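User:
I study polymers; will you set down one protein's sequence and backbone structure tokens?

Assistant:
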Amino acid sequence: MNVIIIEDEDLTADRLQSLLQKYDPDINVLAQLPSVQDTVQWLRTHKEPDLIFMDIHLEDDLCFRIFEQVSLSVPVIFTTAFDEYMVKAFRVNSIDYLLKPVSFEGLSAAMQKYQSMKRQFSQTDLDALRQVVGRPQQEFKNRFLITVGTRLRTIETSEVAYFYSEEKITFLVTRDNQRLPIDYSLDKLTSMLNPADFFRANRQFLIAMSCIRNIHTYSSSKLKLELQPDPREEVFISKEKVSTFKDWLDA
């Protein structure tokens, strides 16, 4: 069986691939794709796999943009961090969903369901999923409650320059250079914030468009960013994200 994994977090994708090979060593993972753009390009240039594992929130957009650009008849098992009560709204005859973190037991049940349904993926289920997760009026986080010593304060999202991760702690940096620890991971923040305003530059930085001061070409494959306020380390856009980053800037 040939499979592709559409997931923007390498560790999550690697774990899913490991679970698949534990379930059946003959499963062949053809590709791990982190974005809508990469997935569309891959699907346009390769034969369809037998099964797709698809995260809902990808690094450049919701996964539904894939279906708008290519015609797929492939069964899909969605992976999602959404609570189960939300997922029930679209669990009809689609292959299945897996809540993160994915367990071996959950994966095994989904694969058994796939074997019994073989290419009976329903467009109706996709439409229902779109209504729950991808509705045009999707709400994004407007402010953060921050604990500073014994005080509580709120930070408006519009005040945020960027978020960064250091030694497993996430920090919010305001435009006036206040650096405050928060209780959200960068993965979680990526799904909570408006993708028109924030971009996941790399594993350590999630940046607001308004904080970008200058962009420099660094070698032939990277971009180097100057941010305001200055971060404590250099910030790069990797080769894999350069095209997506430029599209984000030009949107």
